[in-house]
Write a structure and sequence with these properties.
heterotrimer; B: 285 residues; mainly alpha; MetI-like fold; elongated; C: 531 residues; alpha+beta; Dipeptide-binding Protein, domain 1; Dipeptide-binding Protein, domain 3; 3 domains; eleven-stranded mixed β-sheet; four-stranded antiparallel β-sheet; 15 helices; 19 strands; 33% helix; globular
């Protein structure tokens, strides 16, 4: 296990390297002088020159990149043009709401998706299966923001059982925390549930026809028991992978959802920074999210290997 | 492939939408950009099927015209991603030495949730249709590369490919004549999914106000403007929304149907699907 | 075994969700009861204001934008200020006198007026503030030309001597925007022409600046040592009691979020709501509309560069626009706009003149096409710039684009966030037309969109207008002033430095917990309580 873990961690390095190059490129390879991009087209030549020196823009691109990378390693993501605060500081203030939203959404997604998948596999030879297949496609075809608007109208305004905006930190009380997060999480979950349930169904169906299940059936074990004992328990392992996939979908979705529900998280920070052309913050946020994503995938892989030892020797 | 009713209906819908939107200026009774402040926010009627918006424009016409941008962006992104992804995927799958380099880059690109990457790119490039196409292509083609590569790995060692190799056929010929036809089906399937995802992504970008210029009608722009009228004039948000859903759903059903049609596992009577992890590659973005 | 555990886990999770749902019902009940109990008048408390645009500075002397004004009004005060009927009344001044030749103004300062840093306002502070005002304020610059000298008579008396009769002087120092705000001498000297930094935001107002988290909120707190007047004058003077302990100006752009946030108690007051929603708001329980006149919306062409340096193109622009259509599409509800070509609001009886505003509603598409063909305009793209924090300006820009393209202009829209927008505005290369509103002004000097050769006026440069401004300064009677106002209208009509769209009434909303709120011409939260 230790050996495998080391290997996986080492494999992260090239990925993170590419990630950093792409993030660097976002500002530096766009047409025009980054100093203009940062200061605005109408800035004075002196200001531009000063910033160029400050950012090391007069250096070759490669040197600039490594300087930037060096700063990242010491946790310095630069300074916001807009608020002049450090980007690391700004991001750290915004993590809480986003993580809260993600956690509730993931739980909600799994709570809904796993029973559905189990049920569909159980009823796999009925009309429910094709119905489910079409239904799961519908979920992925709905724009999150539109669904959010409809739900806000329905459950925030017409039947006001959920607050329509805002965020209460967990430290101010568990109930109001979850109450504020539930509606946005439902939106995020609604979009993910179809996909996740479908992946689970697929992996379970695969084991339905495996030799060991057939043997069990041959021995006269009841279908329900076969499903319980062999199929579902085997499907739990791929569920860990599913969590990784869910997070990918959710990270994209939070940007929109946070904006609609005014949750002061990283997604809203990104949109605000884009409107303000605050490039250091945009860079920082994108880098941070990619890093988190890579990290979560690593954890999922490790967990998977831990649960299913065969993987380690692949 | 299209013989199945399940595939035919969405296909016909997309064709119809395409024809409707490009010919809209000939058959729409009122120009969709015609503003008339005396007709603001009218509920759906026989004259204005989907009602009117806050400028008194006909929402039906707007919705039809808006399909242009969605279909244009979706199709172009799907096409460009397919070309880029196929070329890189073929190379990565075929040449072992290049494989690890290409795939490391692809892995790095896939570490970004695609919508976020597109957002950041549009922020840097500026919001315009061209830039959105560039940004979305950049976000989506790595998925295609992965799909193509894994398919190539499967067919690379098939006997007649091996035979061609030993008889001295040149690599480009092997790739285009022997391998490409064998991996075409996953490419088409994935291309359809990218088409669908690009439409959703474009709508999201416009909705967030970083997409296409607000004066160009797109479904995302319409929904953005309709937002404050959610309670007063719900038809303003409902119809463009439904069009997004139907269009994207049509593409998803089509992609799904094509996959089943191509899928050797699904060809038999058994409905058992393919290995789940391939799905991860196709779905994860 | 594993399955059992998993199933148990599900059960627990589902149960907890159900519990949460129930729990919420009980919490909302509690708040409902709480409201009923607290009926007696409350003091203290925090007011959460959802504010649409983040100001770029709170230096009200140098910045004439409404976001700066609305927040800075709570922090800074002027020697004399407008009352609720727009008449000039003392504020920091105890009283003032004007010499018989109308050239010497003697101002007595009230005793013991405290700055937020604890020091007391003296004649030295007033003089230093005046000097800075002459440098940074657009109104101050105009006034400055008429000032001969200003001297300290004693600790609480200043004497300002003008070099000629100039009747706009009191109006100028009392201007609600860019007026003569009194700040401590050291700060005035230290800041000079630069905008005040957050730690220099020291005034004498009922609220003091506490904190500014860029992109999120500006916090003001009650100033305990505020030296309060007792007169019931309203406007920006008289009794200004800080009843609330704290005011948070939260930056919230999205109108829907503001509306929903107010309904769900997230905010107490939300500024700038699209007027289309008026009826919906009236029908919403616990939410009250707040309306007040807020100047007018307009288009300002950049007159320093092609194509709009050419009067013919500006005329084509004017003929191309159907302003009634624009206004109706933008504001929807007729209660919220008025088609009136005058420079001031009809309620400002001394300043209002609608004579000679003929070009205001002159729509003629054919003529526009003709003029355009005669001009040097050859299809280059015209950039209309606006701030996306304001729904109205966005819509005006969209309709204008539509109407201009009908006559042959090629138009591009450029939205920016407020602070970025203001910055872009100062460089002519960034735009050809800006869409903007100017809040209610109280003298021709304050009409920023006509101040000669500045970015705000789109580099308007007209001797005719300058002459009129000089005449205005020395005019004494109402008749004379009316005559000049008519000539001003005539000039604007012919030279088209800006194109007025419509008089605006702004719609804000507030929770019914807010008591005794007086809307006047903009949000001010002194004398206001929250239950």
């Amino acid at each position: 296990m230790l050996h495998y873990t080391m290997r996986r961690i080492l494999a992260m390095i090239p990925v993170l390297f590419i990630v950093s190059v792409i993030v660097f490129m976002i500002v530096h390879l766009t047409p025009g002088n980054p100093a203009f991009l940062i200061l605005g087209e109408d800035s004075s030549p002196e200001a531009v020159e000063q910033l160029e020196q400050q950012l090391g823009l007069d250096q070759p691109k490669v040197i600039q990149y490594f300087d930037w990378l060096k700063n990242i390693f010491i946790g310095d993501l630069g300074q916001s043009i807009y608020s002049e605060e450090s980007v690391t500081q700004i991001i750290s203030e915004r993590i809480g709401p986003t993580f809260s939203l993600m956690i509730i959404s993931i739980l909600l997604t799994l709570i809904i998706a796993i029973p559905i998948a189990i049920f569909i596999v159980w009823k796999r030879n009925t009309f429910l299966d094709p119905l489910f297949l079409s239904g799961s496609l519908l979920g992925t075809s709905i724009p999150e923001f539109w669904l959010a608007l409809l739900l806000v109208l329905g459950f925030g305004v017409s039947i006001p059982i959920f607050p329509v905006a805002g965020y209460i930190p967990l430290t101010d009380g568990f109930l109001s925390w979850i109450h504020h997060l539930l509606l946005p999480s439902i939106v995020l979950a609604a979009v993910e549930v179809g996909l996740i349930a479908r992946m689970l169904r697929d992996s379970m169906l695969e084991s339905v026809n495996q030799d060991y299940t057939k043997t069990a059936r041959g021995k006269g074990v009841k279908e329900r028991k076969v499903l319980m004992k062999h199929v579902f328990s085997n499907a739990l392992i791929p569920t860990t992978t599913v969590v990784g996939v869910t997070i990918a979908g959710l990270l994209g979705g939070t940007v929109i959802i946070e904006t609609i529900f005014t949750i002061p998280g990283i997604g809203q920070l990104l949109i605000d920074s884009i409107h303000r052309r605050d490039y250091p913050v945009i860079q920082g946020v994108i880098l941070f999210i990619a890093f988190i994503y890579v990290l979560i995938n690593l954890l999922v892989d490790l967990l998977y290997a831990f649960l299913d030892p065969r993987i380690r020797y692949d | 492939m299209l013989r199945k009713k399940r595939n035919l209906i969405p296909f016909l819908f997309l064709i119809l939408l395409f024809l409707a939107t490009i010919t809209a200026s000939w058959w729409l009774p009122v120009s969709p950009s015609f503003m008339d402040s005396s007709l603001r926010l009218m509920a759906p009627s026989s004259e204005h099927w989907f009602g009117t918006d806050h400028f008194g424009r006909d929402i039906f016409g707007q919705t039809i015209i808006a399909a242009r941008v969605s279909l244009l962006v979706g199709f172009t992104v799907a096409l460009l991603s397919t070309i880029l992804g196929t070329v890189t995927g073929l190379i990565a799958g075929y040449y072992k030495k290049l494989d690890s380099i290409i795939m490391r880059i692809i892995d790095g690109m896939l570490a970004f949730p695609s919508l976020l990457l597109a957002l950041a790119l549009v922020a840097a490039l500026g919001g315009s249709i061209t830039n959105i196409i560039i940004a979305l292509t950049f976000s989506f083609w790595p998925v295609m590369t992965r799909v193509v590569r894994s398919s190539v790995l499967q067919v690379k060692n098939i006997q007649y490919v091996e035979a061609a190799k030993t008889s001295g056929v040149k690599d480009p010929v092997i790739l285009s004549r022997y391998i490409l036809p064998n991996v075409l089906s996953p490419i088409i399937v994935q291309g359809t999914f990218i088409f669908a995802k690009s439409i959703l992504a474009e709508a999201a970008l416009s909705f967030l106000g970083v997409g296409v210029e607000p004066s160009i009608p797109t479904w995302g722009n319409m929904l953005q403007e309709a937002q404050i009228y959610m309670t007063m004039a719900p038809w303003f948000s409902i119809f463009p929304g439904i069009f997004i859903v139907i269009t994207v759903l049509a593409l998803n059903i089509l992609g799904d149907g094509l996959r089943d049609a191509f899928d050797p596992y699904a060809k038999g009577k058994k409905k058992a699907k393919r290995r789940p992890f391939k799905r991860k590659e196709q779905i994860a973005s | 075994m594993r399955i059992k555990h998993t199933l148990q886990l599900f059960t627990i999770l589902i149960l907890s969700l159900v519990l949460v749902a129930c729990g919420n019902e009980s919490t909302s009940d509690e708040t409902g009861e709480g409201n009923g109990e607290r009926k007696e008048e409350q003091t203290g408390g925090t007011l959460d204001v959802a504010y649409a645009s983040e100001p770029d500075t709170l230096d009200i002397m140098g910045n004439a934008s409404s976001p700066t004004r609305d927040i800075a009004w709570h922090i800074f005060e002027t020697l004399v200020a407008l009352d609720k009927d727009f008449a000039v009344k003392p504020m920091i001044a105890e009283d003032y006198s004007i010499s018989d030749d109308q050239k010497v103004y003697t101002v007595n300062i009230r005793e013991d007026v405290k700055f937020h840093d604890g020091s007391t306002v003296t004649a030295e502070d007033v003089l230093a503030s005046l000097e800075r005002w002459r440098l940074v304020s657009s109104v101050g610059k105009t006034a400055s030309e008429n000032i001969e000298e200003a001297i300290v008579v004693d600790d609480l008396t200043v004497e300002i001597t003008l070099n000629q009769v100039y009747n706009g002087f009191l109006d100028d120092i009392a201007a609600p925007k860019t007026g003569l705000a009194i700040i401590p001498k050291e700060i005035a000297e230290e800041a000079g022409e630069k905008p005040l930094t957050p730690d220099q935001l020291i005034g004498t107002g009922p609220y003091q600046f506490e904190n500014w988290e860029r992109g999120k909120e500006i916090v003001l707190t009650k100033f305990d040592e505020y030296s309060q007047r007792e007169e019931d004058w309203g406007g920006l003077t008289g009794k200004k009691e800080a009843i609330l302990d704290q005011i948070n100006f939260l930056i919230v752009k999205d109108p829907q979020v503001k509306l929903n946030g107010l309904k769900t108690d997230l905010y107490d007051y939300a500024q700038n709501i699209p007027t289309d929603l008026y009826e919906a708001i009236e029908a919403t329980p616990n939410t009250n509309p707040v309306t007040y006149i807020n100047g007018y919306s307009m288009l300002i062409p950049d007159k320093s560069e092609p194509p709009f340096d050419d009067l013919k193109v500006r005329q084509a622009l004017n003929y191309a626009l159907d302003k009634e259509e624009i206004a109706q599409s933008t504001y929807g509800n007729e209660e919220f706009y008025e088609m009136d070509g005058a420079l001031f609001d009809p309620t400002q009886t001394e300043l209002y003149s609608a004579e000679a505003t003929d070009s205001y509603l002159a729509t003629d598409k054919e003529k526009a096409k003709e003029l355009l063909a005669e001009s040097d305009y050859n299809g280059e793209s015209v950039t209309i710039m606006y701030s996306n924090n304001n729904e109205a300006y966005k819509r005006i820009s969209q309709v204008v684009q539509q109407q201009l393209e009908e006559v042959g202009f090629v138009v591009e829209l450029e939205p920016y966030e407020w602070a970025t927008y203001l910055e872009k505005w100062q460089d002519a290369r960034n735009w050809d037309i800006v869409t903007i509103g100017y809040s209610t002004r109280f003298s021709p000097n304050e009409l920023g969109f006509l101040v000669q050769d500045t970015g705000s006026s789109g580099w308007y440069n007209s001797e005719r207008w300058s002459e009129l401004m000089k005449k205005w300064g020395v005019a004494t009677t109402s008749e004379e002033r009316q005559e000049i106002l008519t000539e001003m209208n005539q000039t604007v009509s012919e030279e088209l430095p800006f194109l007025k769209v419509a008089n605006e009434t702004t719609l804000d909303i507030m929770s019914d917990e807010i008591q005794e709120y007086d809307a006047w011409i903009g949000p001010r939260f002194w004398n206001t309580r929250k239950n």
